[in-house]
Backbone:
């Protein structure tokens, strides 16, 4: 039984191309711009006016402040199912970025923070409490395919 598990792991590891990033495989450098930007206001009926007014996939326009840090390197980026059975993209921040993110969320509980990927607002949740531990989830009504595509876009897959 143990021999079969070891062979399966070795067979699966042989399916990747050396040197190419694989979402969910560890440290990655974002290939697209990823920003965490405070929402200054939701603009009813607004249109995109980059770089400060961006529209999400549902047509909601947000006036955004400058980003809260430089998030270009991540410990991991992956698509996965959360405990509620919903597909999400999970980003594990580096220790340095986790400290910045924790500090900002602790000081801005109740504020809305947009997660902007490649110039598009993918989600803009209200911060309910300080986010500790360095793990950020991009949640929504993602299908498996959408979550995997977003993780690949961020991770450079």
Residues:
């Amino acid at each position: 039984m143990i021999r079969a598990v070891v062979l399966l792991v070795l067979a699966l590891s042989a399916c990747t191309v050396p040197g190419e990033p694989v979402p969910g495989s560890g440290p990655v450098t974002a290939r697209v711009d990823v920003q965490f930007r405070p929402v200054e206001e939701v603009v009813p009926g607004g249109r995109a006016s980059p770089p400060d007014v961006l529209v999400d996939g549902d047509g909601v326009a947000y006036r955004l402040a400058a980003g809260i840090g430089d998030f270009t390197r991540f410990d991991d980026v992956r698509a996965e199912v959360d405990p509620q059975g919903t597909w999400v993209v999970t980003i594990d921040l580096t220790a340095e970025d986790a400290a910045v993110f924790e500090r900002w969320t602790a000081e801005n509980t109740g504020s809305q923070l947009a997660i902007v990927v490649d110039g598009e607002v993918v989600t803009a949740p209200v911060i309910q409490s300080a986010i500790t531990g360095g793990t950020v989830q991009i949640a929504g009504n993602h299908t498996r395919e959408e979550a995997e595509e977003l993780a690949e876009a961020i991770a450079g897959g």
